[in-house]
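Issue: copy button drops trailing tokens. Both records pasted manually instead:
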Amino acid sequence: MDEIISVTSKRQYWDTLVFINDYSTRDNISYHLQYLEFCYVVNFYFTPSLTTGSLLRKTVIIEYVSIIETILDSMIFELRVRDYPVGSFVGLHYLKKNTRFGELLEIARYYKILNEDILKKVEKIGEYRNRVHFKRVARNEKEWDYYTDYKLTETENIFEEFIEECRKRHRRLTSDVKVNDFIFPKNQAKGNRILTEAETA
């Protein structure tokens, strides 16, 4: 009998992203949070081999950093700068498009979008994401040894700090946005179970 992995609805994730105005961006991030939850469920229930588990950790780390990058990009896109170039407000996205992760961090520093401590931590896990191309791994280095449980736990903790800082500094409140506690995929996955096809019918 087929089995189905149940995950939190996109809408539940969407409702907690109260620091992002753009609805499409919230949609995209919500689906990636769902995917992260799926990865955790797979890890909890199926216990991958050591090498497969390491590459699954790599996938999760990449997802976390990509979500952070998207959130930063959205915040910077919405940022408006006074007196550039001549006494008016100008959206920062007119200054720079398609920025790289490192550039987003520098812009966030310059405009104090988030505190420096958080930005330094995010910069560190960004380096983990940069190892995505395994052709760049040194000849004497095993890629699956790089993505350790420690690096994953560190990334999870920094992601949580980043989200809490975003919620504290940049929460937008409108009549159609619910203010819920943020849903972290790992916590959701622990309560999930594998559903049979009959249970979903």
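Record 2 (pasted manually too):
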Amino acid sequence: MPPSLNPAARPFVVPGNPCPIVCFAAPPGNAPLDEAGARTYLFRFLLARGAAANVHAAALSQFNDPSTVAIIADPTLRASLLMLSG
């Protein structure tokens, strides 16, 4: 497989098998995540990625920032975009 198609070659992918850490059961009926659930996914993903403490703090602060919420109201999408932090 060419590196461009290999997810492991992408910088935001957690090394090894991330599922014990970041693969969670979907909410019942595939309901969207609420604020707390999305924040938890974001925190655990950054932790598994080995992001520095200042990256954690900045991402969580930006997740809660009213200006960010005004632009990206959906908490799942907001958390997903912030997973690319650092």
